[in-house]
Amino acid sequence: MAAILQRLQQSTKMMSRRKILLLVLGCSTVSLLIHQGSQLSWYPKLFPLSCPPLRESPPRAKHMAVAFLKTHKTAGTTVQNILFRFAERHNLTVALPHPSCEHQFCYPRNFSAHFVHPATRPPHMLASHLRFDRAELERLMPPDTIYVTILREPAAMFESLFSYYNQYCPAFRRVPNASLEAFLRAPEAYYRPGEHFAMFAHNTLAYDLGGDNERSPRDDAAYLAGLIRQVEEVFSLVMIAEYFDESLVLLRRLLAWDLDDVLYAKLNARAATSRLATIPEALARAARTWNALDAGLYDHFNATFWRRVARAGRACVEREARELREARQRLLRRCFGDEPVLRPAAQIRTKQLQPWQPSRKVDIMGYDLPSGGGAGPTTEACLKLAMPEVQYSNYLLRKQKRRGGVRSRPEPVLDNPPPRPIRALPRIPQGT
Ligand SMILES: Nc1ncnc2c1ncn2[C@@H]1O[C@H](COP(=O)(O)OS(=O)(=O)O)[C@@H](OP(=O)(O)O)[C@H]1O
Protein backbone atom coordinates (compact mmCIF):
# COMPACT_ATOMS: atom_id res chain seq x y z
CA MET A 1 0.00 0.00 0.00
CA ALA A 2 2.78 2.36 1.06
CA ALA A 3 4.66 1.56 -2.17
CA ILE A 4 1.57 2.37 -4.24
CA LEU A 5 1.13 5.66 -2.39
CA GLN A 6 4.80 6.56 -2.93
CA ARG A 7 4.55 5.84 -6.69
CA LEU A 8 1.36 7.92 -6.87
CA GLN A 9 3.13 10.83 -5.14
CA GLN A 10 6.12 10.52 -7.49
CA SER A 11 3.98 10.52 -10.64
CA THR A 12 2.01 13.57 -9.35
CA LYS A 13 5.36 15.34 -8.74
CA MET A 14 6.56 14.38 -12.26
CA MET A 15 3.27 15.64 -13.71
CA SER A 16 3.48 19.00 -11.99
CA ARG A 17 7.18 19.34 -12.94
CA ARG A 18 6.25 18.68 -16.56
CA LYS A 19 3.34 21.12 -16.24
CA ILE A 20 5.62 23.78 -14.77
CA LEU A 21 8.14 23.17 -17.52
CA LEU A 22 5.43 23.44 -20.17
CA LEU A 23 4.07 26.56 -18.50
CA VAL A 24 7.53 28.19 -18.45
CA LEU A 25 8.11 27.24 -22.08
CA GLY A 26 4.70 28.60 -23.06
CA CYS A 27 5.27 31.86 -21.21
CA SER A 28 8.69 32.38 -22.75
CA THR A 29 7.30 31.77 -26.23
CA VAL A 30 4.46 34.24 -25.68
CA SER A 31 6.81 36.84 -24.23
CA LEU A 32 9.22 36.35 -27.13
CA LEU A 33 6.38 36.80 -29.57
CA ILE A 34 5.16 39.93 -27.79
CA HIS A 35 8.68 41.32 -27.53
CA GLN A 36 9.69 40.58 -31.09
CA GLY A 37 6.25 40.45 -32.62
CA SER A 38 6.94 43.53 -34.65
CA GLN A 39 10.11 41.89 -35.95
CA LEU A 40 8.37 38.79 -37.09
CA SER A 41 5.46 38.91 -39.39
CA TRP A 42 3.26 41.95 -38.93
CA TYR A 43 5.82 44.76 -39.30
CA PRO A 44 8.50 42.93 -41.22
CA LYS A 45 9.63 46.08 -43.02
CA LEU A 46 9.97 48.25 -39.95
CA PHE A 47 11.81 45.86 -37.68
CA PRO A 48 13.79 43.30 -39.61
CA LEU A 49 15.81 40.90 -37.54
CA SER A 50 18.83 41.42 -39.76
CA CYS A 51 19.60 45.09 -38.91
CA PRO A 52 23.18 45.44 -37.71
CA PRO A 53 23.49 46.66 -34.11
CA LEU A 54 24.06 50.41 -33.67
CA ARG A 55 27.41 49.78 -32.05
CA GLU A 56 29.55 47.21 -33.81
CA SER A 57 31.20 44.53 -31.79
CA PRO A 58 34.13 44.41 -31.82
CA PRO A 59 33.97 48.14 -32.56
CA ARG A 60 35.57 49.36 -35.78
CA ALA A 61 37.76 52.40 -35.07
CA LYS A 62 36.05 55.66 -35.96
CA HIS A 63 37.42 57.07 -39.17
CA MET A 64 39.09 60.42 -38.54
CA ALA A 65 40.20 61.73 -41.95
CA VAL A 66 37.28 63.28 -43.81
CA ALA A 67 37.04 65.85 -46.60
CA PHE A 68 33.54 67.19 -47.09
CA LEU A 69 32.94 69.13 -50.27
CA LYS A 70 30.53 71.79 -49.05
CA THR A 71 28.42 72.57 -52.09
CA HIS A 72 26.23 75.71 -52.02
CA LYS A 73 22.69 75.81 -50.59
CA THR A 74 22.52 72.06 -50.06
CA ALA A 75 22.39 71.79 -46.23
CA GLY A 76 26.19 71.81 -46.22
CA THR A 77 26.45 74.11 -43.18
CA THR A 78 24.58 71.56 -41.09
CA VAL A 79 26.97 68.78 -42.20
CA GLN A 80 29.96 71.06 -41.62
CA ASN A 81 28.79 71.75 -38.06
CA ILE A 82 28.54 67.98 -37.38
CA LEU A 83 32.13 67.55 -38.61
CA PHE A 84 33.47 70.56 -36.68
CA ARG A 85 31.99 69.24 -33.43
CA PHE A 86 33.31 65.75 -34.06
CA ALA A 87 36.76 67.19 -34.76
CA GLU A 88 36.70 69.16 -31.51
CA ARG A 89 35.57 66.17 -29.45
CA HIS A 90 38.42 64.08 -30.88
CA ASN A 91 41.03 66.81 -30.84
CA LEU A 92 41.44 66.68 -34.63
CA THR A 93 42.84 69.43 -36.80
CA VAL A 94 40.40 71.07 -39.18
CA ALA A 95 41.78 72.72 -42.32
CA LEU A 96 40.55 76.31 -42.29
CA PRO A 97 40.87 79.06 -44.88
CA HIS A 98 43.52 81.74 -44.60
CA PRO A 99 41.78 84.95 -43.44
CA SER A 100 42.49 86.56 -46.82
CA CYS A 101 40.19 83.89 -48.31
CA GLU A 102 37.44 84.79 -45.82
CA HIS A 103 35.83 81.68 -44.36
CA GLN A 104 35.81 79.91 -47.73
CA PHE A 105 38.90 78.57 -49.47
CA CYS A 106 39.05 81.57 -51.81
CA TYR A 107 35.95 80.40 -53.62
CA PRO A 108 35.21 80.71 -56.56
CA ARG A 109 38.87 80.10 -57.41
CA ASN A 110 40.00 76.50 -57.87
CA PHE A 111 41.08 75.10 -54.53
CA SER A 112 44.77 75.34 -53.73
CA ALA A 113 46.55 73.98 -50.65
CA HIS A 114 48.00 77.52 -50.32
CA PHE A 115 44.58 78.76 -49.23
CA VAL A 116 44.82 76.73 -46.03
CA HIS A 117 45.92 78.56 -42.89
CA PRO A 118 49.32 77.14 -41.83
CA ALA A 119 48.13 76.75 -38.22
CA THR A 120 45.55 74.24 -39.49
CA ARG A 121 47.96 71.94 -41.34
CA PRO A 122 48.32 69.01 -41.62
CA PRO A 123 44.58 68.53 -41.22
CA HIS A 124 42.41 65.52 -40.47
CA MET A 125 39.29 67.20 -41.66
CA LEU A 126 38.11 69.80 -44.13
CA ALA A 127 34.57 71.10 -44.56
CA SER A 128 34.56 74.71 -45.82
CA HIS A 129 33.36 75.93 -49.20
CA LEU A 130 35.80 75.39 -52.06
CA ARG A 131 35.86 74.60 -55.73
CA PHE A 132 36.96 71.01 -55.97
CA ASP A 133 40.44 70.22 -57.26
CA ARG A 134 41.37 66.61 -56.71
CA ALA A 135 45.16 66.90 -57.00
CA GLU A 136 45.35 69.87 -54.60
CA LEU A 137 43.15 68.19 -52.01
CA GLU A 138 45.12 64.97 -52.20
CA ARG A 139 48.27 67.01 -51.67
CA LEU A 140 46.80 68.40 -48.45
CA MET A 141 44.78 65.59 -46.91
CA PRO A 142 46.04 62.30 -45.41
CA PRO A 143 46.07 59.37 -47.86
CA ASP A 144 43.26 57.55 -46.03
CA THR A 145 40.88 60.51 -46.33
CA ILE A 146 37.27 59.67 -47.10
CA TYR A 147 35.66 62.17 -49.46
CA VAL A 148 31.97 62.97 -49.15
CA THR A 149 29.66 65.60 -50.56
CA ILE A 150 25.97 66.51 -50.75
CA LEU A 151 23.59 67.40 -53.58
CA ARG A 152 20.12 68.97 -53.51
CA GLU A 153 17.24 68.81 -55.96
CA PRO A 154 18.23 71.49 -58.53
CA ALA A 155 14.95 73.45 -58.63
CA ALA A 156 14.84 73.82 -54.82
CA MET A 157 18.54 74.61 -54.78
CA PHE A 158 18.20 77.22 -57.49
CA GLU A 159 15.31 78.92 -55.69
CA SER A 160 17.50 79.11 -52.59
CA LEU A 161 20.52 80.43 -54.55
CA PHE A 162 18.37 83.02 -56.32
CA SER A 163 17.07 84.36 -53.04
CA TYR A 164 20.29 84.13 -51.00
CA TYR A 165 22.68 85.60 -53.59
CA ASN A 166 20.20 88.04 -55.09
CA GLN A 167 22.26 91.06 -54.06
CA TYR A 168 25.63 89.56 -55.01
CA CYS A 169 25.17 87.81 -58.31
CA PRO A 170 24.88 90.34 -61.18
CA ALA A 171 22.76 87.96 -63.26
CA PHE A 172 20.15 87.97 -60.48
CA ARG A 173 20.39 91.69 -59.80
CA ARG A 174 19.42 92.51 -63.38
CA VAL A 175 16.05 90.78 -63.04
CA PRO A 176 13.12 93.17 -62.51
CA ASN A 177 11.40 92.82 -59.12
CA ALA A 178 13.82 90.03 -58.17
CA SER A 179 11.45 87.67 -59.93
CA LEU A 180 12.63 84.08 -60.23
CA GLU A 181 9.93 83.50 -62.80
CA ALA A 182 11.21 86.35 -64.99
CA PHE A 183 14.77 85.00 -64.78
CA LEU A 184 13.77 81.48 -65.70
CA ARG A 185 11.56 82.68 -68.57
CA ALA A 186 14.65 84.09 -70.32
CA PRO A 187 17.85 83.31 -68.39
CA GLU A 188 20.13 84.26 -71.30
CA ALA A 189 18.79 87.82 -71.11
CA TYR A 190 20.32 88.25 -67.64
CA TYR A 191 23.16 85.77 -67.49
CA ARG A 192 26.70 86.50 -68.71
CA PRO A 193 29.12 83.58 -68.51
CA GLY A 194 32.42 84.33 -66.87
CA GLU A 195 31.32 87.43 -64.98
CA HIS A 196 31.72 87.70 -61.22
CA PHE A 197 29.74 85.06 -59.29
CA ALA A 198 28.16 83.77 -62.51
CA MET A 199 28.46 80.27 -61.05
CA PHE A 200 25.66 81.03 -58.56
CA ALA A 201 23.30 81.46 -61.51
CA HIS A 202 24.12 78.43 -63.63
CA ASN A 203 24.90 74.80 -62.67
CA THR A 204 26.41 75.66 -59.29
CA LEU A 205 26.75 71.99 -58.31
CA ALA A 206 28.78 71.19 -61.42
CA TYR A 207 30.98 74.22 -60.76
CA ASP A 208 31.57 73.32 -57.09
CA LEU A 209 32.52 69.79 -58.15
CA GLY A 210 35.23 71.28 -60.37
CA GLY A 211 33.27 70.88 -63.61
CA ASP A 212 32.54 73.30 -66.42
CA ASN A 213 29.16 74.79 -65.56
CA GLU A 214 28.61 76.13 -69.08
CA ARG A 215 28.39 72.70 -70.72
CA SER A 216 24.97 71.45 -71.74
CA PRO A 217 24.20 67.74 -71.59
CA ARG A 218 21.83 68.26 -74.51
CA ASP A 219 24.74 69.18 -76.79
CA ASP A 220 27.36 67.08 -75.06
CA ALA A 221 26.05 64.03 -73.18
CA ALA A 222 29.56 62.61 -72.84
CA TYR A 223 30.60 65.57 -70.69
CA LEU A 224 28.00 64.80 -68.02
CA ALA A 225 28.91 61.09 -68.09
CA GLY A 226 32.59 61.99 -67.63
CA LEU A 227 31.86 64.35 -64.73
CA ILE A 228 29.76 61.68 -63.02
CA ARG A 229 32.62 59.20 -63.43
CA GLN A 230 35.10 61.62 -61.87
CA VAL A 231 32.82 62.26 -58.90
CA GLU A 232 32.28 58.53 -58.41
CA GLU A 233 36.01 57.91 -58.48
CA VAL A 234 36.70 60.29 -55.60
CA PHE A 235 33.63 60.49 -53.39
CA SER A 236 32.78 57.51 -51.23
CA LEU A 237 29.39 58.98 -50.43
CA VAL A 238 27.20 61.55 -52.17
CA MET A 239 24.50 62.57 -49.71
CA ILE A 240 21.12 63.91 -50.77
CA ALA A 241 19.73 66.94 -48.91
CA GLU A 242 16.09 65.82 -49.33
CA TYR A 243 16.95 62.63 -47.43
CA PHE A 244 19.20 64.24 -44.90
CA ASP A 245 18.71 61.78 -42.03
CA GLU A 246 19.09 58.73 -44.27
CA SER A 247 22.25 60.36 -45.65
CA LEU A 248 23.61 60.76 -42.14
CA VAL A 249 22.90 57.13 -41.39
CA LEU A 250 24.97 56.13 -44.43
CA LEU A 251 27.67 58.61 -43.43
CA ARG A 252 27.97 57.36 -39.87
CA ARG A 253 28.13 53.76 -41.10
CA LEU A 254 30.78 54.62 -43.67
CA LEU A 255 32.89 56.34 -41.01
CA ALA A 256 32.08 53.87 -38.21
CA TRP A 257 30.79 56.74 -36.10
CA ASP A 258 28.03 56.50 -33.49
CA LEU A 259 24.56 57.81 -34.16
CA ASP A 260 25.26 60.42 -31.46
CA ASP A 261 28.12 61.73 -33.59
CA VAL A 262 25.72 62.88 -36.29
CA LEU A 263 23.10 64.64 -34.16
CA TYR A 264 22.45 68.13 -35.48
CA ALA A 265 20.45 71.36 -35.48
CA LYS A 266 19.26 72.52 -38.89
CA LEU A 267 21.38 75.53 -39.82
CA ASN A 268 21.18 78.30 -42.40
CA ALA A 269 17.47 77.87 -43.10
CA ARG A 270 15.49 80.75 -44.58
CA ALA A 271 12.35 81.93 -42.83
CA ALA A 272 9.08 80.79 -44.40
CA THR A 273 8.48 84.43 -45.40
CA SER A 274 11.73 84.48 -47.43
CA ARG A 275 11.03 81.42 -49.53
CA LEU A 276 8.51 80.01 -51.96
CA ALA A 277 6.26 77.62 -50.05
CA THR A 278 6.12 75.39 -53.12
CA ILE A 279 7.83 75.78 -56.45
CA PRO A 280 5.22 75.61 -59.22
CA GLU A 281 5.78 72.68 -61.55
CA ALA A 282 6.47 74.87 -64.60
CA LEU A 283 9.07 76.88 -62.67
CA ALA A 284 10.75 73.72 -61.39
CA ARG A 285 10.91 72.38 -64.95
CA ALA A 286 12.44 75.63 -66.19
CA ALA A 287 15.00 75.60 -63.36
CA ARG A 288 15.99 72.05 -64.24
CA THR A 289 16.24 72.85 -67.95
CA TRP A 290 18.45 75.87 -67.27
CA ASN A 291 20.59 73.86 -64.83
CA ALA A 292 20.56 70.70 -66.93
CA LEU A 293 24.03 69.64 -65.88
CA ASP A 294 23.07 69.86 -62.19
CA ALA A 295 19.82 68.04 -62.93
CA GLY A 296 21.78 65.22 -64.60
CA LEU A 297 24.16 64.98 -61.64
CA TYR A 298 21.33 64.99 -59.14
CA ASP A 299 19.26 62.37 -60.96
CA HIS A 300 22.24 60.06 -61.23
CA PHE A 301 23.37 60.38 -57.61
CA ASN A 302 19.83 60.28 -56.25
CA ALA A 303 19.43 56.91 -57.98
CA THR A 304 22.78 55.60 -56.71
CA PHE A 305 21.87 56.85 -53.21
CA TRP A 306 18.75 54.69 -53.13
CA ARG A 307 20.61 51.69 -54.51
CA ARG A 308 23.02 52.13 -51.67
CA VAL A 309 20.21 52.41 -49.13
CA ALA A 310 18.76 49.19 -50.56
CA ARG A 311 22.12 47.45 -50.18
CA ALA A 312 22.33 48.59 -46.55
CA GLY A 313 18.75 47.37 -46.00
CA ARG A 314 16.15 50.09 -46.46
CA ALA A 315 14.19 49.14 -43.35
CA CYS A 316 17.36 49.24 -41.23
CA VAL A 317 18.33 52.65 -42.59
CA GLU A 318 14.81 53.98 -41.96
CA ARG A 319 14.84 52.61 -38.44
CA GLU A 320 18.14 54.30 -37.69
CA ALA A 321 16.96 57.53 -39.29
CA ARG A 322 13.94 57.44 -37.00
CA GLU A 323 16.15 56.85 -33.94
CA LEU A 324 18.28 59.79 -35.06
CA ARG A 325 15.21 62.05 -35.38
CA GLU A 326 13.98 61.07 -31.91
CA ALA A 327 17.39 61.62 -30.29
CA ARG A 328 17.72 64.93 -32.12
CA GLN A 329 14.36 66.15 -30.79
CA ARG A 330 15.44 65.25 -27.24
CA LEU A 331 18.73 67.09 -27.68
CA LEU A 332 17.13 70.22 -29.16
CA ARG A 333 14.62 70.31 -26.30
CA ARG A 334 17.39 69.98 -23.75
CA CYS A 335 19.45 72.73 -25.37
CA PHE A 336 16.90 75.26 -26.47
CA GLY A 337 13.89 74.58 -24.28
CA ASP A 338 10.60 72.84 -24.81
CA GLU A 339 9.94 74.51 -28.10
CA PRO A 340 13.24 74.65 -29.92
CA VAL A 341 12.03 77.39 -32.23
CA LEU A 342 14.13 78.54 -35.09
CA ARG A 343 14.02 82.30 -34.80
CA PRO A 344 15.06 85.36 -36.83
CA ALA A 345 18.50 86.83 -36.07
CA ALA A 346 16.96 89.94 -34.50
CA GLN A 347 15.44 87.77 -31.78
CA ILE A 348 18.71 86.01 -30.95
CA ARG A 349 20.48 87.59 -28.00
CA THR A 350 23.58 85.38 -28.00
CA LYS A 351 25.94 87.03 -30.48
CA GLN A 352 27.74 83.81 -31.35
CA LEU A 353 24.45 82.36 -32.52
CA GLN A 354 23.32 85.15 -34.82
CA PRO A 355 23.42 83.93 -38.41
CA TRP A 356 24.53 86.25 -41.17
CA GLN A 357 21.77 87.90 -43.14
CA PRO A 358 22.52 88.12 -46.88
CA SER A 359 20.13 91.03 -47.42
CA ARG A 360 17.20 92.84 -45.84
CA LYS A 361 14.85 90.74 -47.94
CA VAL A 362 16.05 87.36 -46.69
CA ASP A 363 15.76 86.13 -43.11
CA ILE A 364 18.16 83.37 -42.11
CA MET A 365 16.97 81.69 -38.96
CA GLY A 366 18.93 80.50 -35.94
CA TYR A 367 18.56 79.32 -32.35
CA ASP A 368 19.12 80.95 -28.98
CA LEU A 369 20.10 79.62 -25.58
CA PRO A 370 17.49 79.95 -22.85
CA SER A 371 18.24 82.94 -20.62
CA GLY A 372 20.03 82.21 -17.36
CA GLY A 373 21.56 78.99 -18.71
CA GLY A 374 25.02 80.14 -17.60
CA ALA A 375 28.31 78.64 -18.69
CA GLY A 376 29.28 74.99 -18.43
CA PRO A 377 29.87 71.97 -20.63
CA THR A 378 26.19 71.55 -21.58
CA THR A 379 25.82 75.20 -22.52
CA GLU A 380 29.00 75.02 -24.55
CA ALA A 381 27.85 71.87 -26.37
CA CYS A 382 24.48 73.50 -27.12
CA LEU A 383 26.19 76.66 -28.32
CA LYS A 384 28.34 74.72 -30.76
CA LEU A 385 25.35 72.73 -31.99
CA ALA A 386 23.70 75.92 -33.25
CA MET A 387 26.77 78.00 -34.04
CA PRO A 388 26.69 79.50 -37.55
CA GLU A 389 29.50 78.77 -39.96
CA VAL A 390 31.49 81.99 -39.66
CA GLN A 391 31.51 82.18 -35.88
CA TYR A 392 32.48 78.50 -35.65
CA SER A 393 35.23 78.82 -38.28
CA ASN A 394 36.68 81.90 -36.52
CA TYR A 395 36.50 80.18 -33.15
CA LEU A 396 38.20 77.02 -34.44
CA LEU A 397 40.93 79.00 -36.15
CA ARG A 398 41.73 80.90 -32.94
CA LYS A 399 41.69 77.66 -30.96
CA GLN A 400 43.96 75.82 -33.39
CA LYS A 401 46.37 78.76 -33.65
CA ARG A 402 46.58 78.78 -29.89
CA ARG A 403 47.13 75.02 -29.83
CA GLY A 404 50.05 75.47 -32.18
CA GLY A 405 51.56 78.04 -29.80
CA VAL A 406 50.59 78.62 -26.18
CA ARG A 407 48.50 75.74 -24.84
CA SER A 408 47.70 76.98 -21.37
CA ARG A 409 44.60 79.16 -21.82
CA PRO A 410 41.51 77.51 -23.33
CA GLU A 411 39.73 79.43 -26.04
CA PRO A 412 36.68 81.13 -24.52
CA VAL A 413 33.49 80.19 -26.29
CA LEU A 414 30.80 82.36 -24.79
CA ASP A 415 32.62 85.65 -24.66
CA ASN A 416 34.48 85.69 -27.93
CA PRO A 417 34.43 88.95 -29.83
CA PRO A 418 31.52 89.66 -32.14
CA PRO A 419 31.97 87.99 -35.51
CA ARG A 420 33.35 89.96 -38.40
CA PRO A 421 30.84 90.72 -41.13
CA ILE A 422 30.03 87.37 -42.58
CA ARG A 423 30.55 86.25 -46.13
CA ALA A 424 32.28 89.48 -47.02
CA LEU A 425 31.28 89.19 -50.61
CA PRO A 426 32.19 92.37 -52.44
CA ARG A 427 29.35 94.84 -52.80
CA ILE A 428 28.42 95.20 -56.41
CA PRO A 429 27.25 98.61 -57.59
CA GLN A 430 23.57 98.77 -58.51
CA GLY A 431 22.70 98.43 -62.18
CA THR A 432 25.73 96.41 -63.32
N1 LIG B 1 18.95 69.11 -42.19
C1 LIG B 1 18.55 69.72 -43.29
N2 LIG B 1 17.72 69.12 -44.15
C2 LIG B 1 17.30 69.74 -45.26
N3 LIG B 1 17.65 71.00 -45.60
C3 LIG B 1 18.48 71.64 -44.75
C4 LIG B 1 18.97 71.04 -43.58
N4 LIG B 1 19.79 71.92 -42.99
C5 LIG B 1 19.80 73.03 -43.76
N5 LIG B 1 19.01 72.86 -44.82
C6 LIG B 1 18.72 73.83 -45.91
O1 LIG B 1 19.93 74.01 -46.67
C7 LIG B 1 20.00 75.35 -47.14
C8 LIG B 1 21.29 76.00 -46.68
O2 LIG B 1 22.33 75.29 -47.30
P1 LIG B 1 23.87 75.57 -46.98
O3 LIG B 1 24.07 75.55 -45.53
O4 LIG B 1 24.63 74.58 -47.78
O5 LIG B 1 24.05 77.04 -47.55
S1 LIG B 1 25.43 77.82 -47.82
O6 LIG B 1 25.83 77.54 -49.20
O7 LIG B 1 26.43 77.37 -46.88
O8 LIG B 1 25.09 79.25 -47.64
C9 LIG B 1 18.77 76.05 -46.61
O9 LIG B 1 17.78 75.96 -47.60
P2 LIG B 1 16.77 77.16 -47.88
O10 LIG B 1 16.06 77.42 -46.57
O11 LIG B 1 15.85 76.62 -48.94
O12 LIG B 1 17.56 78.32 -48.32
C10 LIG B 1 18.41 75.20 -45.40
O13 LIG B 1 17.04 75.31 -45.05
TrEMBL record:
Organism per entry: Rattus norvegicus (Rat)
Source taxon at top rank: Eukaryota
Region Disordered, residue ranges: 401-432
Cofactor(s), names only, from the UniProt record: Mg(2+)
Stored InterPro entries: Gal-3-0_sulfotransfrase (IPR009729), P-loop_NTPase (IPR027417)
Record pathway: Protein modification; carbohydrate sulfation
UniProt record, GO biological process: glycolipid biosynthetic process
Topology in the lipid bilayer: Single-pass type II membrane protein
Family (UniProt): Belongs to the galactose-3-O-sulfotransferase family.
Protein name: Galactose-3-O-sulfotransferase 3
Task performed by this protein: Transfers a sulfate to position 3 of non-reducing beta-galactosyl residues in N-glycans and core2-branched O-glycans. Has high activity towards Gal-beta-1,4-GlcNAc, Gal-beta-1,4(Fuc-alpha-1,3)GlcNAc and lower activity towards Gal-beta-1,3(Fuc-alpha-1,4)GlcNAc.
Record localization: Golgi apparatus, Golgi stack membrane
Pfam families per UniProt: Gal-3-0_sulfotr
Keywords, comma-separated and alphabetical: Glycoprotein, Golgi apparatus, Magnesium, Membrane, Signal-anchor, Transferase, Transmembrane, Transmembrane helix
